[in-house]
Amino acid sequence: MRTHGTEVYHYPGGAGKRLATCLQVQMVPELSTADWGAKNANFQVLRETDCPVVLGSFWYGWKNALPNLLTRRALTTHIAVVFCSG
Fold first, then answer.
1. First-to-last CA distance in the chain?
2. Which of 9, 20, 21, 44 is buried deepest, with most CB atoms within 10 A?
3. What is the spatial distance between Cα 84 and Cα 34, in angstroms, rounded to a whole number?
4. How deeply is 30 buried, as exposed, middle or buried, from its count of CB atoms within 10 A (0-12, 13-18, 19+)?
5. Under DSSP, is residue 41 helix (H, G, I), strand (E, B) or coil?
6. Do 63 and 4 touch, CB atoms closer than 8 A?
7. Domain boundaries, the chain
C-alpha cells in the first residue's frame, strides 16, 4: 500500500465538484500516486470564493521527500501543467 497520495478538495454542493473529479482523474496517473479521491471540505478558501474552486494536495504523506521534490523546477512545472489542463 502506498502511503502517499493525491486528493482534490471542493466545497460541498458547489460547482467545484465536477472540476475536482476531473482534476483527480488527470493527476493520479501523471504523478503515480495513490488515488485518495475528490473530497468535500468546508475550507474557507473553498467556501468564500464566488466561482468553482478546488484545492489540490499532491504527494500527501511524503513528509521527508516533499521539500526536495518541490524544489525541482521541472516537477513543479509538470504539476502546474497537469493541474491546468485537467
1. 26
2. 20
3. 20
4. middle
5. coil
6. no
7. 5-85
Q: What is the CATH number of domain 5-85?
A: 3.40.630.40
Q: At what angle do helices 73-85 and 16-31 cross, to 10 degrees?
A: 140
Cell numbers describing residue 14: 458547489
Q: For the segment 14-71, what is each residue's pLDDT rounded down to a tens digit? A: 788 998 998 899 888 887 788 999 999 999 999 999 888 898 887 665 555 555 666 6
Three-state helix/strand/coil letters over 61-79: CCCCCHHHHHCCHHHHHHH
For residues 79 and 43, give the distance between their C-alpha atoms in angstroms, rounded to a whole number: 22
Residues 22 and 86: beta-carbon distance below 8 Å = yes
Whether the CB-CB separation of 42 and 13 falls below 8 Å is answered with no
Distance in angstroms (rounded) separating the CA atoms of residues 23 and 19: 6
